[in-house]
Structure formats: structure tokens, C-alpha cells
Design brief:
Radius of gyration: 21 Å
Strand content: 5-15%
Shape: elongated
Number of helices: 12
Helix content: 40-55%
Number of strands: 9
Order of helices and strands: EHEHEHEHEHEEEHEHHHHHH
């Protein structure tokens, strides 16, 4: 018997579509229903076999639903929860895949206050620079983390259902507080995306942009790969987590000022020391080894 009889996905793109495909591959879902703002992506998901049907609206979608995954950009969460709230029935578990958590949980309290026991906020740490349901694939979550930030009110059975679903997708579940989650991902995810977008935009707006891009090679491609990500999604993430992101940006500006000072002074030894610390930390992380704080 499948873990989930009826799964509802709001936002059938890379994340939501891959969740559906992974559960289908694992034999852990019966029927997958898609709901969203625009009919075209839903019809494409239906044609690709990612979902089994398109809901006419939230009343139709939530009728008999066991689990709802909100996989839309975080900037849409408030409106989505307001729309679904009148049709949500006791026992239907709601989770999300948002890259920020405090703002999502605030929206939960605004609109789903009567269903807090059935809400389990989460964030799968997986993605790609490509977006849309065409980019979805069943293996996306294998070996990846899914961060849980359950509410104090979340009932154990709801948490276990969401945990079992992500584990069926191949993910490893870890727990964090919402504040810790947002601070950590401001540093390791949101800041790198902001920097990549900013660098490419800087080059694109220069008069010699064609010359620059014609000579860009592997290093530029590696550093800026994530600048090909979904602009709306990353706009919403940056705005939602702007307090923590501003702290990380200020810290990075301090590092840039330090590097500028070393360059201005012609301090090759100082630059090499920075590069060596960075090399050791990056290589240890890439090899799955613990990274110690540098002196």
C-alpha cells in the first residue's frame, strides 16, 4: 500500500515535479494532483506524466488529500495559504519546500492557525540552474538533505509522514530551528546566488560585454552557473531572508576589502595565505571531510 494515497503539489516545477516522480518511482504515491497559478505548466506536467490530473481549484485539490506540498516560490506562499485555508480539512498534512522558513511559518500562523498540528515546514537542499517541470527528474533528492523546521504544534504522525516521504525520495532528513536555517542558508546558498547574479549583471551591462563573454571560459562558467537559476524564485528568497542575507553580504564586503588591501599593498604572501586557507577548506568539504574554522 502506498504511503500517500492522494498527493497535491502546488508549483509543479523542478522541485515539486521531482518530488512526485521520486515518490512514484518508489511506489509510495497513488494519485498526484497539480494545482497552480497558470494552466500551461500544469498541462505540461500532465502531458509528461508527472501528475495524474489538474485540479480545478483548491476545493477540488484538497478533497481527500493526504499530503500537500507547497513548492511555489516563497513570495507566493502567503497568497497560496490564504486561498487553500477555507478548503483544508483535518488530517490533511501540509508541508513546503521553501528556501526560507521564518516568513513561511509566519504565513502559516496567519492563514492556517486552525491546522498547525498538520503543518510540517521543510526545505529540500537540492536544485539546479534549470527550472520548470521539464527539468524534473526522479533522482534529484538521492543523497541530499531535507531540512525540517517543524512547529511546536506539529503532531508526531504528520512529521513522520513528511519524513517518510522525503526518505522515500532518497533524502536524509535533518532538523533545525527556523532562525538557524535562515542564517545558515543565507551564507551557503543565498549569498552565492546573489554574487553570481551580480557579477553576470555587471559584465552584461558593460559596453564591452560581447568581448568579455566571448573570452569567458571554465572558471567563469563554474562561478556563475547558478546565475542561470529562476529569477522570480531568487528574488523572493533574497527579499524574504534579507536581514540574514545583509549580514552575510556585509561580512563578505569585509573580506573583499581585506583582499583589496592585500592587492593594493602588493602583499603576495597575504594573498597566498588567503588562497591556501580557502583551498584547504574547499577541498575538505568537497571530499566530505569536516571543515575546521581557520585561525
Amino acid at each position: 500500500m502506498a504511503l500517500i494515497g492522494k498527493l497535491v503539489i502546488c508549483g509543479v516545477g523542478l522541485i515539486g515535479g521531482s518530488f512526485a516522480l521520486a515518490l512514484r518511482r518508489a511506489g509510495q504515491v497513488g494519485r498526484v494532483v497539480g494545482v497552480g497559478r497558470r494552466p500551461e505548466p500544469l498541462q505540461r506536467a500532465l502531458a509528461l506524466g508527472v501528475i495524474d490530473e489538474v485540479a480545478a481549484g483548491w476545493a477540488d485539490a484538497l478533497d481527500g488529500a493526504d499530503l500537500v506540498l507547497l513548492a511555489a516560490p516563497v513570495g507566493q506562499m502567503d497568497a497560496i495559504m490564504a486561498a487553500m485555508a477555507p478548503h483544508l480539512r483535518p488530517g490533511t498534512v501540509v508541508t513546503d519546500a521553501g528556501s526560507t522558513k521564518r516568513d513561511v511559518i509566519e504565513a502559516v500562523h496567519r492563514h492556517l492557525s486552525g491546522a498547525l498540528a498538520d503543518v510540517v515546514p521543510a526545505h529540500p537542499i537540492a536544485g539546479a540552474e534549470k527550472s520548470g517541470v521539464e527539468a524534473a527528474f526522479a533522482e534529484l533528492y538521492i543523497g541530499r538533505k531535507a531540512v525540517f523546521t517543524p512547529l511546536p504544534e506539529s503532531r508526531a504522525a504528520a512529521v513522520e509522514l513528511v519524513r517518510a516521504a522525503w526518505e522515500a525520495c532518497g533524502a536524509r532528513v535533518v532538523d533545525m530551528s527556523p532562525g538557524e536555517h535562515d542564517r545558515v542558508f543565507a551564507a551557503v546558498s543565498h549569498l552565492p546566488h546573489l554574487l553570481a547574479f551580480g557579477l553576470v549583471d555587471d559584465f552584461a551591462r558593460r559596453p564591452n560585454a560581447p568581448l568579455l563573454f566571448s573570452h569567458a571560459a571554465g572558471g567563469f562558467r563554474d562561478f556563475t552557473r547558478i546565475a542561470g537559476s529562476h529569477p522570480e524564485m531568487w528574488r523572493d528568497i533574497c527579499i524574504a531572508n534579507r536581514v540574514a542575507l545583509l549580514d552575510e553580504l556585509d561580512a563578505y564586503l569585509g573580506e573583499l576589502a581585506h583582499l583589496r588591501g592585500l592587492l593594493e599593498a602588493g602583499d603576495g604572501a597575504g594573498l597566498e595565505a588567503v588562497f591556501e586557507r580557502a583551498r584547504r577548506a574547499r577541498n575538505a568539504w568537497a571530499e566530505g571531510l569536516p571543515v575546521q574554522a581557520a585561525e
